[in-house]
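[09:14] KT: can someone run the structure on this one? pasting the chain below
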Amino acid sequence: MMQEINHKETSREYAFEMWMNAPMPMVTIFRTIEVTNLRKISRLKKLKFNMLMCWCIGKAATQVKEFRILPVNGKLIKYDSLAVNTIVANNNEEVSSCDIPFCENIIEFNDHYLRLTAQVAETCENHDITDRMVIGTSALVRYKIDGAVGMYSGIFNNPFLIWGRFHKTLFKSYLNMSFQFHHTQMDGAHAARFLELLQQEIKKL
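[09:31] RB: done, structure tokens below
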């Protein structure tokens, strides 16, 4: 469920007034995340690494209330639930977009992930969820990157994470990650807290 709310009655009143009409309201934070535990679970449980990442992202986001709101078409919209987007290689050798509804039960989330990504790959049609706040992701798993800054189109204000191929030390694995967000939705401290929660969820999964 989604509903318009009065920004003057929220903690984002000042941010809305300052950044809603800014020519470039997006902020990007970079962080290196340790993913040793995710790689281990992926191998032992035969679960897709990207699915595990998406679930941890959703789990961390549920703990930051700013993820429940989003500026849309000049209005502030409140959402009851979240989804995590992933980019899928489709049967036309192109890519399609797939929104996965987030749920606390990782087995149920995995079922949604496998079914929806397979559907999108086969049909070559995007799967969009419009009644949830969607967190975008893009995994450039074939390439080592130091970071990426997403394009601001002025249409989509959703938070967005990008990461590349993991790199290894003797005993641990790491991902360089960027997190882009609209300054009306959250401040740098909220974003940094989200990334810290993401690291915690990965380690304790």
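[09:33] KT: thanks! The helical segments are 13-19, 36-45, 49-61, 106-123, 188-204.
[09:34] RB: yep, looked fine to me
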